[in-house]
């Protein structure tokens, strides 16, 4: 039996190729290219910046007119890794979060997770009436919200959940508290 992607020799009954990681049922025509960089992709070291974890995408918010709506609420996210990030507006959280084509976010918050339990783009967040909301982005290990007075709630992928201050959001082996 041979892999139809990389032509590696496979043991009988294999479900995945040990060389390229493809499913044994995959064909070159069925594979779509993931636009996000892979965990093992070689990067141009000259193009790398410092270890910034939270990157404002837009860079600034336009100055509001006197009659305009107030600026979005600010939230402090305290990660189990020891890092703290202050965010407002919208954003993505994950090991290497990347927006889909046409999406725009204020923040891309990267979590250092050596166990790879957190997905590349694990969840999305935003603000509604001064309260943070999150939505699991179909992550591999799911997302759990622990509200101060409400116990644990497993998030259904693609659905928004309000996360009041004092809550903890668990992303597989990592977590963050919302202040």
UniProtKB/TrEMBL annotation:
Region described as Disordered: 21-40
InterPro entries associated with the record: SMAD_FHA_dom_sf
UniProt feature, compositional bias: Basic and acidic residues: 29-40
SUPFAM superfamilies the record matches: SMAD/FHA domain
Protein name (Swiss-Prot/TrEMBL): FHA domain-containing protein
Species of origin: Agromyces agglutinans
Phylogenetic placement of the source organism: Bacteria, Bacillati, Actinomycetota, Actinomycetes, Micrococcales
């Amino acid at each position: 039996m041979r892999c139809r992607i990389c032509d590696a020799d496979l043991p009988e009954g294999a479900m995945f190729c040990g060389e390229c990681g493809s499913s044994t049922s995959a064909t070159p025509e069925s594979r779509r290219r993931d636009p996000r960089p892979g965990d093992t992709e070689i990067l141009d070291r000259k193009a790398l910046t410092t270890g910034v974890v939270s990157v404002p995408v837009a860079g600034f918010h336009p100055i509001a007119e006197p009659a305009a709506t107030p600026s979005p609420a600010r939230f402090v996210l305290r990660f189990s890794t020891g890092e703290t990030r202050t965010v407002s507006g919208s954003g993505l959280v994950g090991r290497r979060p990347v927006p889909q084509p046409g999406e725009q976010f204020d923040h891309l918050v990267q979590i250092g997770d050596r166990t790879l339990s957190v997905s590349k783009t694990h969840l999305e967040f935003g603000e509604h009436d001064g309260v943070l909301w999150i939505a699991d982005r179909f992550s591999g290990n799911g997302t759990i919200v622990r509200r101060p007075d409400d116990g644990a709630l497993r998030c259904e992928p693609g659905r928004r959940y309000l996360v009041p201050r004092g809550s903890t959001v668990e992303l597989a082996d990592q977590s963050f508290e919302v202040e």
